[in-house]
Structure formats: structure tokens, C-alpha cells
């Protein structure tokens, strides 16, 4: 059984919604088990992350999906403290080398400079010797027939992006489902590398992808009627 961890920090619950969705995607793949690990403020002592139990659990996983809120165009301070704690001894001993990695983030703004956060997460993973997996979906919501319910509506491939209005409690359904698909992709690739399990790659043309998103929009509209 391949084991994956979803490690996240969430200020008001928006990023946790994406973490839950990624976990759902991971656990939808046979032969893969996922677990959630939340980075909390009480884990920080004198400015340093101090939860060795959590770090040891990550040592025993085959892959780690990293996620946090984007604050002021950057990964949150709490999450950066967690990342920096991996330097000693895990970076020195290459404990996470060849583990699968992926990332996600959320902000209230449509842009919010979220790409900077994803770059931080991916650079961390690569410095740790991990293998980064990005989003594979074509861009949604980039034409007159698009909608917030589209998959990959924010057009991000480095990692999954979510946007949640400041006065609402979760990102759009399109962002949530994109995160779920990333979780499933990470799980499939992890199992392929760990167990040598072959899989068939899903490929869609842009017209086909748009057709699927229109069907999603219509189905969601039907649920609201």
C-alpha cells in the first residue's frame, strides 16, 4: 500500500477545503492511502517548527502534498517554519529524496500572487530531492462559455490554485474538483513508481475539455434548480 500525506496550513478553513478534496482524490485510487496533517500555530516554538512526531510520520510516506494559504504574495509564515525545519536533519540525510511531491494554495484575490507560493513549495520539494507533480488539466474559464465551475479555471499547472471570496467559506466547486483531480493524479503516479502499476494517460483536446466543462456547468445548474 502506497502512503501519501497532505500537509497543510489553513487560516480560516478555505485551504483546508482544498486539502480535504486532495485527500479525497488520493483515497479514490486503489492501493493508495492518504492522511491529513495540519500545521498549527502551537507547533511553532520560539519561531521554529517543533513537531517531530509529524516529521517522523512524513518520513514514512511515499509522497507529500504541500499546501498553505497565500498571505501577502507568499507562503504563510507558519508553513514556512515547517518547511525550514526539514533542513536538519532531513535535507542533510536526503530522507525525502525521490518521494513524490505536489502543492496547492488559496487566496481571496483572483491572482493574489499565488504562483509565488507554488514556486516556493516546488523549490523546497526539489531541494529535498523530491519528484514534483503538477496539474495536468487544460485551462478553464478562459472563453465566453466558461464558468467558475470549470476545472483549472485559474489556469495553474505548477500546482492547484483556489480562490475563495473573503465573505464566503470555501473556494469554487471548480477549484475544489481540480484539487481532487490533482490528488488522484499524485496517487496514480506514486503507485506507478512504487509498485510499477501501469495506467492509461487521460488526454483531452481543448474542444473536448470545454465540452466537459459545459456539461459540468449544466449539471451544477440542474442541482440548484
User: What is the strand content?
Assistant: 15-25%
Rounded to an integer in angstroms, the radius of gyration calculated over CA atoms is 17 Å
The helix fraction, in percent, is: 40-55%
Architecture, according to CATH?
3-Layer(aba) Sandwich
Name the CATH class: Alpha Beta
Q: What's the rounded overall pLDDT mean?
A: 94
- Main sheet? 7 strands, mixed
Number of domains: 1
> N-to-C terminal Cα separation, in Å?
42 Å
Brief digest:
The protein is of the alpha/beta class and 225 residues long. It is 42% helix and 20% strand.
Topology:
Blueprint: E1 2-9, H1 14-27, E2 32-38, E3 44-45, E4 48-49, H2 52-59, E5 63-71, E6 74-75, H3 77-85, H4 87-93, E7 100-107, H5 114-127, E8 131-132, E9 160-163, H6 173-195, H7 206-224
Parallel strand pairs: 1-2, 1-5, 5-7, 7-8, 7-9
Antiparallel strand pairs: 3-4, 5-6
Overview of the molecule:
There is one protein chain. With 225 residues, the protein is of the alpha/beta class. It has one domain (2-224): 3-Layer(aba) Sandwich (Rossmann fold), CATH 3.40.50. The longest helix is centred in the last third of the chain and has 23 residues, at 173-195. The protein has helices at residues 14-27, 52-59, 77-85, 87-93, 114-127, 173-195, 206-224, and strands at residues 2-9, 32-38, 44-45, 48-49, 63-71, 74-75, 100-107, 131-132, 160-163. It is globular. Strands 1, 2, 5, 6, 7, 8 and 9 form a seven-stranded mixed β-sheet that branches. The protein has a two-stranded antiparallel sheet with strand order 3-4. It is built from seven helices and nine strands; from the N terminus they run E-H-E-E-E-H-E-E-H-H-E-H-E-E-H-H. A hairpin with a 2-residue loop joins strand 3 and strand 4 (48-49). Helix 1 (14-27) crosses helix 6 (173-195).
Amino acid at each position: 500500500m502506497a502512503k501519501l500525506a497532505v500537509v497543510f496550513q489553513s487560516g480560516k478553513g478555505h485551504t483546508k477545503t482544498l486539502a480535504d478534496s486532495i485527500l479525497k482524490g488520493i483515497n479514490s485510487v486503489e492501493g493508495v492511502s492518504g492522511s491529513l496533517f495540519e500545521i498549527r500555530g502551537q507547533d511553532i516554538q520560539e519561531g521554529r517548527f517543533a513537531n517531530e512526531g509529524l516529521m517522523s510520520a512524513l518520513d514514512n510516506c511515499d509522497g507529500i502534498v504541500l499546501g498553505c494559504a497565500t498571505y501577502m504574495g507568499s507562503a504563510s509564515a507558519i508553513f514556512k517554519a515547517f518547511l525550514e525545519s526539514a533542513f536538519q536533519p532531513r535535507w542533510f540525510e536526503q530522507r525525502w529524496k525521490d518521494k513524490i511531491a505536489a502543492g496547492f494554495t488559496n487566496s481571496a484575490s483572483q491572482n493574489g500572487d499565488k504562483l509565488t507560493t507554488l514556486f516556493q513549495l516546488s523549490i523546497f520539494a526539489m531541494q529535498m530531492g523530491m519528484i514534483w507533480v503538477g496539474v495536468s488539466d487544460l485551462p478553464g474559464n478562459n472563453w465566453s462559455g466558461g464558468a467558475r465551475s470549470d476545472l483549472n479555471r485559474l489556469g495553474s499547472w505548477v500546482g492547484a490554485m483556489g480562490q475563495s471570496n473573503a465573505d464566503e467559506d470555501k473556494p469554487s466547486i471548480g477549484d475544489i474538483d481540480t484539487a481532487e483531480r490533482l490528488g488522484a493524479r499524485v496517487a496514480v503516479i506514486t503507485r506507478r513508481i512504487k509498485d510499477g502499476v501501469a495506467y492509461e494517460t487521460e488526454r483531452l483536446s481543448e474542444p473536448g475539455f470545454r465540452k466537459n466543462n459545459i456539461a459540468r456547468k449544466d449539471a451544477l445548474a440542474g442541482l440548484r434548480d
